[in-house]
Each structure stands twice: as C-alpha cells, then as structure tokens.
Design brief:
The chain is mainly alpha-helical. The protein is built from 6 helices and no strands.
Length: 164
C-alpha cells in the first residue's frame, strides 16, 4: 500500500483530534470549516496516491521493456486523464484551505501556540499549492513546516489535557 495513503489515514486521526479540541476550546468557525473540508480533500488525494503507487510503476515497466509508445499512451490514459487532474486540483484546493483554516483556528486559540498556528497556515500553501505547481524542494519545506507545527501543537495540547 502506498505510504501516502497510509499517512493520509493516520493524519486523519490527528486532524479529527485537533478539530474536536478546537470545537470544544477554540474558535469554532475556522475549526469547524477546516474539519469539514479535510475529509473530502484527503479522499480526493487517494486516487492520485494510488496511481503513483501502482499504475505508474507498471507503466514504467512497459517503457523499460522497450515499448515507449505504449507506455506514453498508458500514462495519458491511466495516470493522467483529465478527470484525475481535476480531482487533484480540487483536492489541492480543499487541503490548502483546510490547513490554512486550522492554522488560523490554532493561532486564534488562547491555549495553543500562535506561532505553530501561523506555521500550519503557511505550510498548507507551500506544500499543496506552490509545491504542487513547482514540484520541487518547496514541498519538502512545506512538509517540514507542517510536521514541526503539528508536533508542537500535539505536545502543547497533550500537556493541557492532563489533569492538574
């Protein structure tokens, strides 16, 4: 199974937990909108991850066997049809928007670190929009910022949740 699909599934647990905490203790509106937009965005990314995990390696094997024309035809038919591109664009917009909304909710909360919320809000566009468009090191920077921000939020939230 693709690591992207597994990572997305695991990430949904953290997203749900953050959403519940924000709805209970933080600014409700951005947290609620973020919680509503993440699942469809994550679901729409799954076909792209599956294509990358299973279809593209098979197409590469056809190419390596010497049939470049068949590989190219398969690529555009199976791995890059217009419907998959549109699905990817909608997913990118939903995931970018939800990450920005979660970041705003965290930054506005009085009990989570505002810089972590700002980092989370910045990570979404870097990772999903700029990184998607340029397909370069910007995705790595966005990913690192996303990881650092969410780990910081998780650490602070877990300390706040412990009884005194």
């Amino acid at each position: 199974m693709s690591a992207s699909i597994v990572g997305g599934a695991i990430g949904m647990i953290g997203i749900a937990a953050l959403g519940v905490l924000l709805l209970a203790r933080g600014p409700v509106r951005p947290g609620l909108w973020a919680l509503v937009t993440v699942p469809p965005g994550n679901a729409l990314v799954a076909p792209l991850s599956g294509t990358a995990a299973w279809a593209q390696p098979a197409i590469g094997r056809v190419y390596l066997q010497g049939d470049a024309a068949a590989a190219q035809a398969l690529y555009y038919d199976a791995a890059q049809p217009a419907t998959l591109v549109v699905t990817g664009l909608v997913a990118v917009l939903l995931l970018t928007g939800s990450t920005v909304l979660f970041g705003i909710a965290v930054a506005r909360s009085r009990w989570l670190p505002a810089p972590a919320g700002i980092g989370l809000a910045a990570a979404g566009p870097l990772l999903f929009l700029v990184g998607f468009a340029l397909d370069n090191f910007i995705q790595t920077i966005g990913s690192a910022l996303l990881i650092a921000s969410t780990v910081w939020i998780a650490i602070v939230a877990s300390r706040e949740a412990k009884p005194a």
